[in-house]
Every structure is written in C-alpha cells, then in structure tokens.
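=== RUN LOG ===
request id: a7f3
mode: sequence -> structure
chains: 1
length: 77
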Amino acid sequence: MIATPAKIVPDVMEECGRAHVKGVIIVSAGFKETGPEGKALEQRITEAAKKYNIRVIGPNCIGIIRPGLKLNANLFG
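=== RESULT ===
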C-alpha cells in the first residue's frame, strides 16, 4: 500500500519493482485530476508498472477489503 505525497509515488513504484513487488494499492491523490504535472506523475507510475509487471489499484483509492482472505487494506482500518 502506497500512501505518500504524489510526487514521491513514482520513485516508490521503482523501488517496488526492484524489490519484485507484484501488486500495489496507491491511496495517494494528486495525479491527473490536478493538471499536467499530476498527469505526468501518473504516466511515470504507469511506465513503472509496465516495466516491472506490477498490478496497480489506484491512485486515489481508499483501499480494498477481501473478507475471504481476511484482508483489510483500507484507509479506515
């Protein structure tokens, strides 16, 4: 789960890729909805996801809950 300022998320994605992380949930906001700079950040996330084959939920996501797996990965805990 990535919950950092938007400007840091692409670097975190690169770190995740180098660490062989297979999937991320990005709860951070401040991407294409904020204009050209945010759109460029989102493009960098997409590029890292493709480069390292990382599945992505988000950005601007509040998380996921999967009761069958006893997984509760959301902002409200």
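=== NOTES ===
Residues 14 and 62 are 22 Å apart (CA to CA).
The chain is about 35% helix and 20% strand.
=== END ===
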